[in-house]
Design goal:
With 196 residues, the chain is mostly beta strands. The chain has one domain (8-188): Immunoglobulin-like. It has strands at residues 8-14, 23-32, 38-46, 70-77, 83-88, 94-101, 104-106, 116-121, 125-132, 146-155, 161-165, 183-185, 188-189, 194-195. The strands form 2 sheets. Strands 1, 2, 3, 4, 5, 6, 7, 8, 9, 10, 11 and 12 form a 12-stranded antiparallel β-sheet that branches. Strand 8 and strand 9 (125-132) form a beta hairpin.
Length: 196
């Protein structure tokens, strides 16, 4: 996984009613990979012995990953209502969904969407690195300015879920909400390897 410098670091915060004493924090770093993919690294710190972390499996598509520990990236184009959702599990499982507008799903076709996922962990930290391919997604135009919503669902050994995001709109946790898209990323400078 060859990537350029990391130009963006973002801090996720917990949804107030789902605070977890086992988690010290979650950060995300983003950059463009040398091949034009979007590289995202999620770093969770805390007492991992109190969390349910899915065991590694053969990489494959799987639905409903958000019911357990899972990291998510919602990616759209600035000024457009369409977006894609990437679910990235520590197990190596993944899912990609497309939406015409808020929770208005549309089918995806093609076989080139599988992200590259690697994971490292010890008792106090977990890092999930992923490169997601945007160039095969019909809703993401090449060299577009992107808007992103980053989030995570973390499961404790008790089964309790905590919800983390860059921003939590009013009401129940809703990672799809337009107000969650708070991070903008300029197109990749593929010659220089980093965003402009």
């Amino acid at each position: 996984m060859k990537t350029s410098q990391i130009p963006h670091t973002a801090v996720l915060t917990w949804y107030p009613e789902t605070y977890s004493e086992a988690i010290d924090g979650i950060k995300a770093r983003l950059c463009w990979a040398d091949d034009g993919g979007l590289a995202i690294a999620y770093v969770l710190t805390g007492d991992l012995t109190r969390l349910r972390i899915p065991l590694p499996r053969k990489p494959r598509h799987a639905d409903r990953l958000w019911e357990h520990t899972c990291f998510e990236a919602f990616v759209g184009v600035v000024g457009k209502s369409e977006y894609c959702e990437f679910n990235l599990a520590p197990s190596g499982e993944w899912a990609v969904y497309a939406f015409r507008g808020y929770r208005e799903s549309v089918p995806l076709v093609g076989k080139e969407r599988a992200p590259e996922i690697t994971m490292r962990s010890d008792e106090n930290s977990l890092e999930l690195d992923a490169i997601v391919r945007l160039d095969h997604l019909p809703l993401i135009q090449p060299r577009a300015s992107l808007k992103l919503a980053l989030s995570a669902v973390i499961e404790e050994n008790s089964g309790m879920l905590s919800y983390w995001a860059l921003r939590h709109p009013a009401g129940k946790p809703d990672f799809h909400h337009p107000d969650s898209f708070t991070l903008e990323l300029e197109p990749a400078d593929l010659e220089g390897g980093i965003v402009s």
